[in-house]
Amino acid sequence: MRKKIVAANWKMNMNVKEAKSLCKTLLPLVKTNDKTVVFCVPSIDITEVGKMLKGTNVKLGAQNMFYEEKGAYTGEISADMLLSTGVEYVIIGHSERRQIFKENDVMINKKIKKAITSGLIPIMCVGETLTQREKNETLDHIKNQLEKGLKSVSKEEIKNVVLAYEPIWAIGTGHTATSKQAEEVCAYIRKVLTEMYDKKTADEVSILYGGSVNEKNAKELFSKKNIDGGLIGGASLKPEFAEIVSA
Ligand code: PGA
Hints:
Elements: E1 5-9, H1 16-26, E2 36-40, H2 46-53, E3 58-62, H3 79-84, E4 89-92, H4 95-100, H5 105-118, E5 121-126, H6 130-134, H7 138-149, H8 155-158, E6 162-165, H9 179-196, H10 199-202, E7 207-210, H11 218-222, E8 229-232, H12 241-246
Parallel strand pairs: 1-2, 1-8, 2-3, 3-4, 4-5, 5-6, 6-7, 7-8
Helix pairs in contact: 1-2, 7-9
């Protein structure tokens, strides 16, 4: 049985005071036994949010990390630092990191490897641009991102990786992928994992969909066979997030 996961990606929103207030609102609403709920919060909020999540069903997550152990990397945060605050999950390779901060597949692979060996669960994002979709290059692009991002990740290790399909044209735009489009790519991701590992292993990996998921479209998206939950941006900052978790 694959884990059902709903991960909130707060992105660069919520100062410490706002983060605490949002947690106070959301925590009583997202109680669940059969799903994993993760709050991926800005680094500055991790400590305070972490204190509030202690003893609850909600897991603490970060939105990025660097792959080196420590040293002269101004502005970066290490896996060890995340672990020391109780972080369990970390988003790696979000399209905003790839596009705005120029992270490439080689860097993403190093981050994935470092997260795994440190004991963090990476949520690795893949997804195509609108141009790639229009040119019918979606599946090739996804395969390429998976093969490069997961290079030398072993069969044992991939079981501790969560994948997220996030079409770039659907992120923050209100244009969510149809459940058919999302399922097609998530099923393809599982096929690529089957080729890279084997069917049994591929069947154990949770694959999330992200991109304008809201309380109205979540149920339909999550009803699909290969979609095991969602990575939620905008809607994770509102009480409606609880309805997405229920869906
Ligand atoms: P969105 O963002 O839900 O606001 O589209 C999703 C994401 O970028 O993870």
